[in-house]
Amino acid sequence: MRYLPHTKEDIKTMLKITGQSSLDSLFECIPEDLKTKQSIDIPQSLSEWELNAHMEELASSNIACKDYKCFIGGGSYDHFIPAIIPYLISRSEFMTAYTPYQPEVSQGTLQGIYEFQTMITELLGMDVATASHYDCGTALAEACLIALKKNREKNKIAISALAHPSHRQIVQTYIRPTGYEIIEIPYTKEGLTDMNALAGMDDLAGIAVQSPNFFGNIEDLKAVKAVADSKKALFITSFTEAMSYGLLKNPGQFGADLVAGEGQSLGIAKSFGGPGLGLLAGTKKQMRNLPGRFIGKTLDANGDNGYVLTLATREQHIKREKASSNICSNNGLNAMTAAMYLATVGKIGIREIAQQNHDKAVYLKKSLVNAGFEPCFDKPFFNEFVLKPPKGFEQKRAALIQDKCIFAGMDLEPFYPEMKQHYLFCSTETVSKDDIDQLAKEVQ
Q1: So what CATH class is 65-80+347-442?
Q2: What CATH architecture does domain 84-342 belong to?
Q3: Could you report the average pLDDT of every consecutive run of 10 residues in the chain (444 residues)?
Q4: What is the distance between the alpha carbons of residues 52 and 54, in angstroms, rounded to a whole number?
């Protein structure tokens, strides 16, 4: 596409219409002390090779987990990605896919989304799943908005303090301007959401609990469901580690109304924090309230399978005041990646990978406890857990990063000030027994 600048005649015409005497007058509303008076100091241009060298130098200041042993989870997880995934997803048909408004020319994209939605519903045990969202936080916020819309006479959403801190902030950003109230459910000494704290609250539109929670512990979703039903609130559950449902009962088996989650573990690299893959699924009752798109399968005039945009509850397709959300985008490339990953590893593969995650985490916890760490909770967990380290660990941890290329846990204090001197550890299939043994030896 060529760059076609405005001509002097174009500029004069636009200024006349806007009633401005010059281009500078367009910016008179900006205070003088905020305007740049001097010229911008732009470095001299570089050759292609000089620029490549400069970018490589900048990139070398970052730390990539492939070069380090990472025992950190907290919502973003290292997993092996089969070589077929990056090969297939880099094909131009997927990289440049067009928004599927015209089904006759978008069958590949439509089928990809259909397959993605089908596999997500099976993984989570739900009836329907939307095309993907930005990340778990935005999916969780959308789920909370659905609950408020469904229960218009109620004005509160209760969300567990053990939901991911960043996701809770996103929910606050969504909900606060609406005038509704967010109740934060505290957690018990056992590292689980304290559902007894909701006693006496009868104006809850929805109750949201993450499982496994931010501490890695597996919540009693059956008990959460019972409380939600007693208060006639929607039961919302979220997760950050999709791999956990290779072993755990899925949310559908506990009667969840809505499920929001992060799909980064499904074949998507961590990429220094993003992009992620927001998953959102629900029961048939919630289908017309879920934001985004639903792709359906039908037969064309020749009797062949055809894929179409069956339902879109977004403001581009229906009256804005009736739209369930202003979510327009589908993280299509990441959704396609997740679908490819799930199809590649299959049900048995997901179960085996999840089992490795759990078993290695159990071995890691046992090894660190033997090295002098104190366990904080005694509840079932998946692939991450909280420990209190012995004295001097902070210095050893810093040295491990610098000298041994090992990330030994995540400090919880910035997220939970009351958890000072507590660390969240994680293990996935990417760490070996030797890696765990080395860590335990180094921190003794």
Answers
A1: alpha beta
A2: 3-Layer(aba) Sandwich (3.40)
A3: 76 91 89 86 91 92 78 94 94 76 81 94 96 92 93 93 97 92 96 94 94 98 96 97 96 97 95 88 92 87 89 63 68 92 96 97 97 96 97 93 92 96 96 95 91
A4: 5
